[in-house]
Amino acid sequence: MLNTYPGLVLNRDYKPFFSKIFAGLSGPAIKPLTMRFVWMVSDAVRIPVIASGGIMEFKDVIDYLAAGASLVQTGTLNLIRPEAAVEMVKEFNRLRRKRKGFIDDIVGFAKRRKDGSK
Fold it and tell me: CB of 67 within 8 A of CB of 39?
């Protein structure tokens, strides 16, 4: 989906800080913005939506799936904690073994809750 948003930073002289004026903002700050797009786009298309942007812990993965994503991708997290993605896959697999149908149940769960179903 979206993993970077263009941003603008001004220096103390009120000139653009970056030589190309705009630069990418990514990481945890963009998760709420990307969650909105995942919610909207997953309603509009019938293909898998891949969410990325701001995934720092397993709850973020679940949040994106519940909002309608079919898959997730990590970026900044890989630089900060390279082992975290492996830990998340292990946790995900643990939940899948514990509860059959876990993936189908979680994808779009928040949308179903909004509509009153469980």
Answer: yes
The size of the chain, in residues, is: 118
Give per-residue pLDDT as tens, 48-99. Answer: 999 999 999 999 999 999 999 999 999 889 999 999 999 999 998 999 899 8
Tokens (6 digits) for 96: 């899948």
Amino acid found at 34: T
The two three-digit tokens of residue 105, written as one number: 């149940």
Cα gap 7→82, rounded to integer Å: 26
At 51, which CATH number?
Answer: 3.20.20.70
pLDDT, tens only, 16-39: 999 999 999 998 999 999 999 999
Distance between alpha carbon 109 and the CA centroid of its chain, in Å? 15
Domain count, the chain: 1
Q: Rounded to an integer, what distance in angstroms lies between the CA atom of residue 67 and that of residue 112?
A: 10
Q: Which residues form the domain of 28?
A: 5-114
Q: Residue type at 79?
A: L
Q: How many whole angstroms separate alpha carbon 50 and alpha carbon 66?
A: 12
